[in-house]
């Protein structure tokens, strides 16, 4: 009898050891981004009740890493990981409901659960429901900017480290609020400069360029350590690759051209794809009236191009048709 008990216990210990090996092997492949190799090991570990394996599988099925993307399986794996006691997954489940299913109330439930469990990143996401009107209305409320800023201020470092575009935009607007009220961030950082960095990180290139122009920032270092002039060129040029309305694209290229014009910056023109006059013509091609008038001025005065009164009249005519006051040439 004792021998039988010993055999049973040995078998159970071996099974547990094999399950642990499956988890460790799967985790190692996952960390090396060898997701297809990690998949069978993590699946085996998940069947043995390892919450971490379930969590990693949830991410793999959510992003389609090493397997086909499957939101149903992803949701099930995240939930199973939580049931098995793993200390991550609420934020990911919330993001799945938020971005994939657009079920904002259900997403908020998960964000609140994450907050109750002291998860990093929960507070900035909860703050979104006070800042964005559509999110506030989805839970039967109204926007409350003061509350949103209070929440984001209490979790600013979490927001700044986030990769969520909505969170980053909210954090940037909080920085603008501080700047306009004569306040600074911790360690005396210039709030509006930080706002531009956050907008850039969140791929809000147009908004970043406009903010820089509005506050006439003299020096700004972004995440790639570029000074302001390269930053302006970068954000405006990159913004044109995204699906912005023509009116906004027109203003982007106008900002690009005017920045180079005002700083007499010719050195970097060709490196960034557009000459000063080329940027302004690109802006005008999107129907941006200020660019049309500026082209009239430049062709009339021979600025950044040879003097050409015929072209000046053509651009002035287009600008006038758009409602601008133009001189007689």
TrEMBL record:
Gene3D superfamilies: Tetratricopeptide repeat domain. It holds the Pfam family Sel1. InterPro entries: Sel1-like, Sel1_AlgK, TPR-like_helical_dom_sf. The keyword Transmembrane helix does not apply. The keyword Membrane does not apply. Keywords: Signal. It comes from the Bacteria. One of its GO terms (biological process) is ERAD pathway. PANTHER family: HCP-LIKE PROTEIN, SEL-1-LIKE PROTEIN. This is Sel1 repeat family protein.
């Amino acid at each position: 009898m004792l021998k039988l008990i010993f055999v049973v216990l040995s078998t159970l210990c071996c099974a547990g050891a094999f399950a642990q090996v499956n988890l460790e092997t799967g985790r190692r492949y996952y960390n090396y981004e060898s997701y297809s190799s990690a998949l069978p090991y993590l699946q085996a570990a998940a069947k043995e009740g390892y919450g971490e394996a379930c969590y990693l599988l949830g991410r793999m099925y959510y992003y389609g890493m090493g397997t086909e993307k499957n939101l149903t399986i992803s949701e099930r794996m995240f939930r199973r990981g939580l049931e098995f006691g793993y200390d991550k997954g609420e934020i990911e489940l919330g993001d799945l409901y938020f971005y994939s299913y657009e079920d904002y109330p259900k997403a908020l439930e998960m964000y609140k659960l994450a907050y109750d469990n002291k998860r990093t990143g929960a507070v900035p996401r909860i703050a979104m429901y006070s800042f964005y009107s559509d999110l506030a209305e989805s839970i039967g409320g109204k926007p409350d900017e003061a509350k949103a800023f209070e929440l984001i201020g209490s979790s600013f470092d979490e927001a700044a480290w986030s990769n969520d575009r909505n969170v980053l935009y909210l954090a940037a607007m909080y920085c603008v609020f501080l700047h306009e009220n004569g306040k600074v961030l911790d360690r005396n950082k210039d709030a509006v400069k930080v706002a531009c960095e956050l907008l850039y990180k969140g791929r809000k290139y147009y908004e970043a360029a406009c903010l820089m122009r509005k506050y006439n920032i003299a020096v700004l270092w972004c995440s790639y350590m570029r000074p302001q002039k390269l930053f302006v060129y970068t954000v405006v040029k990159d913004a044109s690759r995204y699906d912005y309305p023509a009116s906004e694209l027109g203003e982007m290229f106008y900002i690009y051209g005017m920045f180079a014009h005002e700083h007499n910056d010719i050195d970097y023109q060709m490196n960034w794809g557009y000459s000063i006059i080329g940027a302004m013509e690109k802006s005008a091609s999107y129907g941006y009236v200020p660019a049309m008038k500026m082209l009239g001025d430049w062709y009339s005065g021979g600025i950044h191009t040879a003097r050409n009164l015929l072209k000046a009249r053509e651009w002035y005519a287009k600008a006038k048709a758009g409602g601008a006051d133009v001189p007689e040439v």
